[in-house]
Design brief:
This protein has 76 residues and is α+β, with helices and mostly antiparallel strands. The protein contains 3 helices and 3 strands. It has a domain of 50 residues.
């Protein structure tokens, strides 16, 4: 019984998956579109996950039909 528990325990430990995630730093993103109105600057960028190397999450984003957008709003 103890051996079965050990086998099950190691199987769960070795088969569990933890995926890596590369952070999205808004300071380092080149924003593709921007507009200025009344001293307020508004910029945004799509497809940030793929650009940062988060391929697994980029695939999920495409599969589920959602978009992650990085937005920058500056008060001039």
């Amino acid at each position: 019984m103890k051996n079965n528990f050990i086998y099950v325990f190691f199987t769960l430990i070795l088969s569990s998956c933890a995926s890596s995630f590369h952070t999205v730093n808004p300071q380092n993103v080149f924003y593709q579109s921007s507009s200025n109105q009344d001293n307020v600057s508004f910029s945004y960028k799509y497809e940030v996950l793929h650009e940062r190397g988060n391929k697994k999450y980029a695939k999920k984003e495409a599969k589920k039909g959602i978009k992650l957008v990085v937005v920058k709003v500056e008060n001039n």
